[in-house]
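Z., the sequence and structure:
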Amino acid sequence: RLPCTAVTCPLSPPPRRQTLATLPGRAVVDSLVLNAHPACDGSACFVQHPCPKPGPGPVPGSPLTDQACFSLLRPTAGDLRTVLVSRATLPRKKLIQHSHSPCVTPRFVLAKLDSFGARSPLNTNGGMLRFLHQDEDDLWLLLERATNRSRVLSSGGARFVNNHFWNCFEDPRTAEVVVETVATTSEYLDLYSEPNLRAPMEWSRRFQAPLRCRVPTEGSAKAGVRCAPLSAAVNASLPFDYPTFNPLFKARHDYRFFYALAPSAADSKWFDQIVKVDVSRGGGAVAASWARPGVYVTEADFVPRTGSTAAAAEDDGVLLSVLYNSTTDSSSLGVFDARSLALVDQFGLGGVVP
């Protein structure tokens, strides 16, 4: 096999692929909604969900409720179960309340409480998104793990949809929980409808500027969440999404790097660039990037080379991303060096992977 160059990386033989068996499992939960990404730390996995009071019939409660809960996620050999640990009452009812990606620290679990609201049906969407969209809201839920008590907090004028948290940590100086978020608008989900994908991309209609938010963990429940732009180097016109980082640096206040997908230009049709961001430089500056004409990228997952948690080893690993080449109408698995974002290997997948 020829080595990769700055321009090309010859495809390796495709790896042997096997299909996982489908198990007859089911989710045994008293909720219509669970968040997409559980918050796990090696000892426990938490989910945040609405928890309306039980109602008549087989449907567990109502999709409109002012009750929000944290539960422990307990997978079994055949089922997915939850164990309720905390309940809180919101200042107002929410429709299909959800938290896309809560985050966990040694002492706390944090969720942004998003939900759906009515919209004008004069749009090109189908299904539920023709009549509903995600509301840009300001409510948060903070769980103290030692006591299983939750508090509802507000970020005031910082109203947005949390598309992804990535790392969050406890600030040793202030005892606050610091969380960084991909903030989006109520029109984010419209991005995935076919008519909108065919139209010219308007990134700033779907994204707000990414934020760094500071969540109080002590004192009055009236203390608010304070959010500010992550960095002057990134904005809603050229946003990023699907952030990842070295999992060995989870919940560490001294972590330095994260990786994300971004458009390479304002007129990019989709995410066509992988970026490495250094948060120690002005809150977040792009330290490296990778892009090729006509190639679109998916979430770049970090695989550490070693188990080292030394600061020098934070970017010692590889990134795995499924790439789509629009010129050849084919997909491949790209392997990138996490330090330089050089493409070090590429495996053809024998077709197109959506």
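DSSP finds two helices and 24 strands in the chain. The mean pLDDT is 90.

Let me know what you think.
H.
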